[in-house]
Amino acid sequence: MSQTFQQSVITEFRANAEKVGGPFAGADLLLLTTTGARSGKPHTTPLGYVRDGRRLLVVASNLGAPAHPDWYRNLLAHPAVRVELGDEEFESLAVPAEGARRDELFARVVAEAPGYAEYQDATDRVLPVVVLELPDPDAVTPPVTSLADKLVEVHTWLRGQLRHAHDETEAYFAERAGHGGAGEPPAPGIGLQIRQRCLAFCQALEFHHTAEDGHMFPTMEGYHPHLRDVFDRLREEHRSIGAVQSALADLLADAAIAEPDRFRAELARMTEELTAHLDYEEEHILPLLAEVPWPPAAA
């Protein structure tokens, strides 16, 4: 798909709440915005999708070409993506399925869109199936009108990713414990899932801390010099938490061979350290941000 044609599809999609004409008339389309693996810039791509419960499935088919499409390489480097679906727009975590789960989901896709089977037949590579989770319809999202609200929103997302990492590793340990057959237990089907979640968490936390250290804290310290000790402590914690992020990534990468009780204890320790930092920041910083409007007023 040429850049000019792709941009025309994006423009028509946004103008007509997901409905486009031409070769995509009647097709289920979404817009996926990824962050460039090398450039760091946003890239938007129109993609076909198949619904599977509370998930959207997209296939990195590249029309059966021998190489993965750019958007797939982007999401492996930056798992947090933005999805436009009709008049909805939401953040999601892009997780490629693995092994038997990938095969099951690909069959689900082919049942609705048989053309993907032809793309698979045209190439030697296994076409990745990427899962995009829809927002929880029962989740209550408070309005964000101040910088304090925005900080809480970011912290809530970070805490949620830690909970998901706990849940996913527990699911794997339960599957491993239930393996009663001969030979080695099945490989975890959550390797990429945990990798993507951990990578998204670490990237978001690093970006959050860089913004605080580079912009928010210096400005706030100028207005509140009596809180210098608080800002100094938070900066020091940011440095130490960088090491915790790295250790967390290493821990989750070793879930397949880990001893469950030791793994749980180490994950709990790291989670406690990370959430204690968020708690301390909220206790001392939120009151100072309650009157700062978000989004920022235009200059």
Q: What would the principal axes of the Cα set say about the shape?
A: globular
Share of residues in strands: 5-15%
Low-confidence stretches: none
CATH topology-level name of the largest domain: Four Helix Bundle (Hemerythrin (Met), subunit A)
**Superfamily (CATH H level) name of the largest domain:** nmb1532 protein domain like
Q: What is the CATH class of the largest domain?
A: Mainly Alpha
| Cα Rg | 22 Å
Q: What are the defining features of this structure?
A:
54% helix; alpha+beta; Pnp Oxidase, Chain A; 7-stranded antiparallel β-sheet; globular; 14% strand; 2 domains
Per-chain topology:
Layout: H1 3-15, E1 29-35, E2 42-48, E3 50-52, E4 55-59, H2 70-77, E5 80-85, E6 88-96, H3 99-112, H4 115-121, E7 129-133, H5 147-177, H6 191-223, H7 228-253, H8 260-289
Antiparallel strand pairs: 1-2, 1-5, 3-4, 4-7, 5-6, 6-7
Helix pairs in contact: 5-6, 5-8, 6-7, 7-8
Overview of the molecule:
One of its GO terms (molecular function) is oxidoreductase activity. The structure is a single chain. The protein is an alpha+beta fold and 299 residues long. The chain folds into two domains: 1-131, Pnp Oxidase, Chain A, CATH 2.30.110; 145-286, Four Helix Bundle (Hemerythrin (Met), subunit A) (Up-down Bundle), CATH 1.20.120.520. It is 54% helix and 14% strand. Strands 2-1-5-6-7-4-3 form a seven-stranded antiparallel β-sheet, with helices on both faces. Helix 5 (147-177) runs antiparallel to helix 6 (191-223), helix 6 (191-223) packs antiparallel against helix 7 (228-253) and helix 7 runs antiparallel to helix 8 (260-289).
